[in-house]
Amino acid sequence: MTLESAFCLDQGFELTEYDGTSATLVCELQDRQKNRHGNAHGGVIAALLDTAMGLATRSSGRVENLGTVSLTVNYLKPASGRVTAHAQVRRCGRTLAFCDAEVRNAADDIVATASAVFAVAPRGRSGTEPGTESGTESGGKPDIETSHA
Fold first, then answer.
1. 44 exposed, middle or buried (CB, 10 Å; 0-12, 13-18, 19+)?
2. Whole-angstrom Cα distance, residue 91 to residue 146?
3. Cα angle at 22 between 17 and 31, to 5 degrees?
4. Distance of alpha carbon 43 from alpha carbon 132, whole angstroms
5. Got the DSSP string for 73-103?
6. Burial profile 92-117: b = 16 or more Cβ within 10 angstroms, e = fewer
7. With the C-alpha atoms ordered 68, 144, 4, 66, is the resulting torsion angle positive or negative?
8. CA-to-CA dists, residue 14 to 40, 60, 109, 110, angstroms
9. What 8-state DSSP symbol labels residue 136?
10. Fewer beta carbons within 10 angstroms: which end of the chain, N or C?
């Protein structure tokens, strides 16, 4: 899996690891990404979190396409320098995926957390026909389900 978005590449986001339900991105913050106080602009942190969660969802190989339905970001402290986002899929069903993520600074302090819901299109399915269970195993169970409570 690669990071293909021109926006993300322009921001300096780098995919460092992923598996079937998680993804990690890093970004070395540049002056152009900072607010007037010299800290990371909140929009950059939000984009990093959203991208990490989207890639975590795609990392299973079962999702062809997705779009962010909702994104909630909690900013805990200012960020600067190198930041790392780690995202985890909590559940991915036929049409929706639920994820959590956090951003840490170089000192390993959590600087932001997020949760998101994504609309997903399963790989190999262009749409859902009546009576089908697109994106599910037999019995209507979700494709991906993780629990890390």
1. buried
2. 6
3. 60
4. 39
5. EEE-S---SEEEEEEEEEEE-SSEEEEEEEE
6. bbbbebbbbbbbbbeeeeebbebbbb
7. negative
8. 17, 19, 20, 19
9. B
10. C
Indicate the residue type of 146: T
User: Which tokens belong to 60?
Assistant: 């299973």
For residue 119, the surrounding DSSP H or E stretch is strand 110-122
Whole-prediction pTM value? 0.83
Please give the structure tokens belonging to residue 81.
């320098």
H-helix segments, 14-147: 42-58
Alpha-carbon distance of 75 to 124, in angstroms, equals 37
Q: By the 8 A CB rule, do 96 and 56 touch?
A: no
SS3 of residue 14 by DSSP: strand
